[in-house]
Each structure stands twice: as C-alpha cells, then as structure tokens.
Amino acid sequence: MQQSKKDISSLETKLDNFDPALRKQALLDLLELVQRGDIPVKPMKDIANLHCHSFFSYNGYGYSPTHLAWLGKKQGVQFMGVVDFDVLDAVDEFLDACESVGVCGVAGLETRVFLPEFEHIEINSPGEPGMCYHMGTGFTTNAVPEEASAILDDLRKRAENRNREMLERINSFLTPLRIDYDTEVLPLTPKSNGTERHMVQVIAQKADDTISETASFWAEKLSVPSEEIAEIKKDRNRYKNFLRSKLMKRGSVGYVQPTQASFPTVEEFHTVMKSVGALPCSAWLDGTSKGEQRIEELLHILMEKGVAALNIVPDRNWNIKDPQEKADKLDKLYAVVDLAQRWNLPVLVGTEMNKFGQKLVDDFNTPELAPIREIFLRGATILYGHTQLQRYWGIGMKSAWADKYFSTRSEKNNFYFKLGGMIKPGFKDKSKDLITFKPQAVINHFIHNH
Q1: Residue 273 lies in a domain
Q2: Distance (Å) of CA 76 to CA 47, 90, 103, 170, 419
Q3: How many Cα atoms sit within 13 Å of 402 on the Cβ side?
Q4: Does 240 map to a domain?
Q5: b/e string for 146-181 if b means 16 or more Cβ within 10 A?
Q6: Low-confidence residues in the chain, pLDDT < 50
Q7: What CATH number is attached to the domain comprising 73?
Q8: Order of all β-strands in the sheet with 347-349
Q9: What's the pLDDT at 274?
Q10: What pLDDT does 338 receive?
Q11: What pLDDT is attached to residue 263?
Q12: What per-residue confidence (pLDDT) applies to 448?
C-alpha cells in the first residue's frame, strides 16, 4: 500500500530530531520507501552545494546533517557538503548518510581567524580589520588528535563566551525582557553550540509571547517608528534579521569590536586540518573590501600558510537587484575564479543555508554562472575524490603519499579529479592497501573494479 504524504512528512521531521538514533532510523525508513516506489526522487544532476550549515551550528530550516543528505538524494544533487561554525560535530553523520543515499558528500569547518599581515585591513568580515572568515574542508571524521581537539574546544568556548557576554549586554538594554542562555537558547541546539541566530530566535519569540504591544516596545528600544516595526513583523525572517542587525551586529548594543585575541591565528586553525589531512580553504566574500581588492597578495600569504582551495557563495556575487552593483561584483567573481584557476586552487561553492530563504542549490545554468559552471563542478569532484581517498585509505591531497608522488598542485588536482569521477558513494573497497600503490596503479585499480 502506498505510503501517505503525512507518514512521509513525519519521517522527514524525525530527520531533525536531536536523537541521532532516531535520525538514522528515519533515513533508513525513507530509503525503504524510495525502493518501494512510494517516494519519487529526482535523477542525479551535475549540481553542487558544498556549503550547507547544519543544525550543529545553525540551519535556517532546522536541518540536521542527515536531512541535508536526504535532500540531496531527493532533489538529485550530486555533490553536497556540510560546513558548521567552530565544530566538527556533523562530519561522521553527514558522510555516512551521504554514502547511504548515494550522494557525493564532503565536510568542512568555518570560523574566524586573525591575519597579522592584514592587521589594519578589512578582509571578509565587514568592519573588522585583520579578522577573516576562514575554512577547513575535506574532513573525514569528527575525531581529531589531542592538539587539534584542544583548538576546537577553544573555538567552542570562545564562541560561547562571546554569546553569553553579548546576551548580557542585550538583556540590560531590553529590560524588562530577559533571555536565559542556558534554559532558553541552548535547548534549541543538539550539542550546546548556540549562535547569534539562536539567540535572536528566542528574543523575537519571547517578545511576541510576553509583551502585549511588541511594535511599540521595539519602537521605543530601537528608535524605529512602530508602523515600520509592524510592517517588518509581517515577514518572520525579515523580523529576525532586523532584530539581529539592531541588537548584535556592528554598531549595536550587543556588539564589541574584536581584537587579535578574539580568534585564533591562521596557523593555529590550520593545525586542525594538518592533524587529519583536511584542506585549509580561503573564503571569498565579494571583492569590495580593501583586503579582497588585494586578493593576489592575500591569497599568496594564505597559500604560503597551507591554503589549498577557495570557497565562494555565488549568490551574493551576482543575484543582486542594482544593475551597477551586480555588474561590478560579477566582474570581481570572474576575476577571482580566473585567479584560482591560474594558481590551481579548486573552487568550492554553496549557498550556506544558515538563513531561511536561501536555496538548496545554486543554478549553474544561469547566464551569470554558466561560464564558470565547469570550474565549480571540477572543484566539487576534486574535493570528493580527496575525501574518499583520505577517508578509506589515508591518501588524500595533504597526505605524505600525495606529497611523495605529486610535485605540483596541478598534478594533485588532476589525479583527485579523475578519482572523484570514478568512485561512487557507498563503495567501500578496503581489500587493497592503496597507500602502497603508485598513482597510476590506484587509477587502474578503480578502472578494473568498476
């Protein structure tokens, strides 16, 4: 008997339960329904989203790593990648789920770092000179050695301390409204990794629940006309973004300008990637800051420190209403992609999904992205090839094996691109110790077995 839409919806809801066992069982049940023909799935297409935040940091739809993998299966997204702020909690769950559903999965980590060479220059964190959004990608497990674990623990603690201190400032400002971090914010998270977006979600809801005239309340506190507040409140997402900008972002009551002690250095953060063979990854904003206008100098410094890829969120570089701004940012996008190509940095793209309304996947066939579509797909394939070879055989792009056999970035990219196109999700051939093979023998192994 065909499964009802209600039952399917119930299973998909369980994918976001905080109990990992329930998430896993719900996925197995959904896949069984796919096998029976009760749930239609789209055929896999050459599309990619390698930058999805999960509910382990903040996802605008509340999606778990397992749910993101399921969406990839259901919508036919060939390459999916999870990226969370300050934590690796999603990695094992996401990669296992991708293997189960047949999606090419990759996993990463995002944070902010201090770059002393650009100490007085704004880079990609608006209004914060020397501070830089930065990433690691190509992780294959949550488990890291002790030295890296200490850095990750420090990232988590720093983030929590910033949140608690920010919330105290906001609470003082919003009296009589008061939010408790432990009892109201942390229950929204599966592993106590609260974020600004969690806090603003609680603030918005509690104001609506406990204050009779919320528009008047916000008008008084934020010096914005109550009529404007009432209009903003009609769109829940706009309402939360408005409160976040007024309470937490630069110039607001909750904001404190970071110093070089606020975040780790690039080298400290790269220790995490080095410990497990993952790839340090630079993050591009839109090319308008003074730092990104010096992108060749910036990337050269970061590559000297180990950066091996470039992350881009395409939508904010072309999907812009103002024609002049769009043309300017699109030109900068093409220029940085061209630079990455010349310097043999795989380009990795995604939509973030840390805000409601963001897409599941970019449309690479738009006139704006079509000219660089194949570059995006090549980057996704390289990263997937690295992930599979590192996860099962320890011969990823940063391994001693790779350094032994490849003398240039171009050679590495070509090899992992070829293997990324050959290894299918779910294939776990551990019968051969590939670390003893030369590169061509590794290729021959997969040709012979597939």
Answers
A1: no
A2: 8, 21, 8, 43, 21
A3: 23
A4: yes
A5: eebeebbeebbebbbebbeebbebbbeebeebebeb
A6: 1
A7: 3.20.20.140
A8: 45-52, 77-85, 104-114, 131-137, 279-284, 309-312, 347-349
A9: 96
A10: 98
A11: 93
A12: 86
Task: Please list, in sequence order, all residues whose beta carbon lies within 8 angstroms of the beta carbon of residue 448, skipping any fewer than 6 positions away.
Answer: none
Residues 315 and 234 occupy one common structural domain = no
Residue 77 CA, chain-centre distance (Å), reads 16
Among the listed residues 377, 364, 381, the one whose alpha carbon sits nearest the alpha carbon of residue 425? 381
Instruction: In whole angstroms, give the CA distance from residue 269 to residue 267.
Output: 5
Same domain, yes or no: 132 and 162: no
Tokens of 351: 């939509």
Question: Residue 78 sits in which domain range?
Answer: 41-140+278-444
Identify how many contiguous H helices and E strands the chain contains and give both numbers: 17, 7
DSSP codes joined into one string, 170-182? HHHHHTT----II
Whether residues 308 and 386 share a domain: the answer is yes
pLDDT of residue 1: 47
- The pLDDT, as a whole number, for residue 430 is 63
pTM of the predicted protein model = 0.96
Residue 5's pLDDT is 79
b/e map 231-257, b = 16+ CB within 10 Å: ebbeeeeebbbbbbebbbeeebebeee
- Please name the residue ranges forming H helices in 59-115: 65-75, 91-101
